[in-house]
Write the structure tokens for this entry.
Amino acid sequence: MTVNTHVAADTQAPPITHELARFVAEHPSRGWSDAVEHEAHRTFLNWLGCAIGAARHEAVDAALAAVQMLQPAPQATLAGRPERVDIANAALINGISSHTFDFDDTHLKTIIHPAGPVASAVMALAEQIGSSGRQVIDATVLGIDVACRMGNLVYPQHYDRGWHITGSTGTLGAAAACSRLLGLSAQQTQMALGIAASQPVGLREQFGTMTKPFHPGGAARAGLMAALMAQKGFTSSPRALEAPRGWAQVVSTKYDWNEARDELGQRFEISFNAYKPFACGIVIHPSIDACAQLRDQGVTPEQVQKIELRVHSLVLELTGKKEPQDGLQSKFSVYHGCAAGLIFGRAGEEEFSDAIVRREDVVALRRKVVAVVDDSIREESVVATATLTDGRVVTVHVEHAIGSLERPMTDAHLESKFHDLSDPVLGRARVDQILAACWKLGQAPDLRGVLGLITPA
């Protein structure tokens, strides 16, 4: 029997490609509130710290070695490394580096990590063409808005189909941001979005491997190239995002056009960015938070007979690896996250290292964690119950984890995280200077104040 899975196309969709292109090209510089402006600086700072922190990771080493076989022109800076490559591959490598630790920003409505594709492309291009800090911030805000609005339009069905939404929307965001930096017209920007629409990057099957951080890097490179090609006259469909066989209707069974259009130029999606205190998948954060609270209440690993987690089904769908074998896999194990939270009271990059994943006491505690699906629990919540060997039962309910919009990381938290990531690479004194430059980026005449500091001496 043949099953008809065809979904009727929307042939009367509004001109989303045109509307977003005009918005990117014509919205006034700094045309938003002080709160949005500050969030843009927080986003850039957090992205850069993540990129520097992972600069020496084996995934970055491997990707850079492959790029160097192409003998790239030394056009652009790599965060945390002395090498220079061409702008397209700088976008790729910095995008990979910024997402390798899974420690980057998150647009919680769609679980997009928007800065990876957008900021990686922006920094590479801005260095080459001499953009001001103001232009960098403007492009970042507008590029993230395009990526997240397109994510809003198709989430969650797009994600459920298996797309890694950071990469698939990130290509569009990077194209928008680079079009803005280049000063493209609305028509040229429309072409850039169309070129980018044919290059969605990323499958969820790759989670737990080096290819997951390739997705934002690949999106950054593809979006940058789309803008450069549009600048030189390369064309695309002017309805590439909304047409029946365009981006939205091909990659998702849901496409809510209003999500891309409502309050365009008034509400900025970067306002809904959150930042991770834990270096792993966002849905694990409530469970880590809960286990850290159990630790604060005096519960020790030796006392634990069992820890039961009541979680939303998405938690196990994304992070159900019971026996992770290495650090990358452990970032998708709620069991490992809980063990780290209880043993260490934190879950930074070190707690997701290969050595910690294989440590006997960590493995033993991980095997005492039981996760039970309860879809009355929201994705951002958990109920953790520890049954102890003396018969006591201790329960912690986390409604919103630290790092969420309801319990946001402060500027001081972000600076501390930046130091933890970057000090081992560049040294504390240098990192203090980078932080100062990042907070003032919107006032800088160019990127030299940042770029001169983010490579090893």
Residues 92 and 288 are 31 Å apart (CA to CA). The chain has 21 helices and eight strands. Strands lie at 76-77, 84-85, 106-107, 273-274, 304-311, 369-373, 382-388, 393-398. The two ends are 67 Å apart (CA to CA).
